[in-house]
Write a structure and sequence with these properties.
Layout (H helix, E strand, L loop, with lengths): L3 H17 L7 H9 L20 E4 L2 E3 L2 H10 L7 E5 L5 H7 L4 E6 L2 H13 L5 E5 L12 E6 L8 H5 L1 E12 L4 E9 L2 E10 L13
Parallel strand pairs: 3-4, 3-6, 4-5, 6-7
Antiparallel strand pairs: 1-2, 7-8, 8-9
Helix pairs in contact: 1-2, 1-3, 2-3, 2-4
Length: about 220
């Protein structure tokens, strides 16, 4: 349909205004990125008309794409300025990485499910997201060869913050991750400073399980 691009652009503007700005997200870089990233391309064809709704959606392989507000809130809590190298654990359908790529210098993203990894890499290439580097691996071990990272975002819930991720966080860096049980977690923000590690609880949330050597067993 000829009006599809305009329709999706309108839906994105409405999503940002009603779900993100209205709930207190103020970071202009995050707002711009959420207005630009084509969320409807990161869901299945059957879910396209629901892509900009205020809820998570299934993406196959037992995984989900988080609701827009959660993505915006987690991104804002990373306190990005535009020049960072960011590590994402849990590529999923690629939407969070796409949002980050609109803001930062380079995004490194790890996915442990091979089907999602292959699908998402093809999509990044098609959309010409050249500043996203992907890896098929256990994300709980991080990506030591490319670290340290200015910011790390984990898009699945673990029973603890994986030690390798804290180790790979640069001095002054921020990490945002859901931590808790199988069915509900608390969103935590970790900051690494010369005085040590500080942790802030940002409130309750619900994510799929973080599986791996430093997460939940498969």
């Amino acid at each position: 349909m000829n009006d599809e691009p305009n329709k999706f652009a309108r839906w994105r503007r409405e999503m940002v205004e009603n779900q993100i700005i209205a709930r207190g997200v103020t970071d202009p870089l995050v707002i711009r990125a959420m207005t630009q990233a084509p969320r409807h391309l990161f869901v299945s064809e059957a879910m396209v008309d629901s892509a900009y709704g205020d809820f998570p959606l299934p993406i196959g392989e037992g995984q989900t794409i988080s609701q827009p507000f959660i993505i915006a809130e987690m991104t804002q809590r990373l306190e990005l300025t535009g020049f960072e190298r960011v590590l994402e654990i849990g590529t999923g359908s690629g939407y969070q990485a796409a949002v980050l790529s609109q803001i930062v210098y380079k995004v490194y993203t790890i996915e442990r499910n091979n089907t999602l990894f292959l699908q998402t890499r093809k999509l990044f290439d098609r959309l010409k997201y050249h500043n996203i580097v992907t890896r098929y691996s256990d994300g709980t071990q991080g990506w030591k060869q490319e670290g340290p990272f200015d910011a790390i975002i984990v898009t699945a819930g673990g029973n603890q913050i994986p030690a390798p991720l804290v180790e790979q966080l640069a001095m002054g860096g921020r990490l945002v991750m859901p931590v808790g049980g199988h069915h509900s977690q608390e969103l935590l923000k970790v900051e690494k400073t010369e005085n040590g590690i500080t942790t802030t609880n940002l409130g309750g949330c619900r994510f799929v399980k973080l599986i791996g050597q430093h997460g939940w067993p498969e």
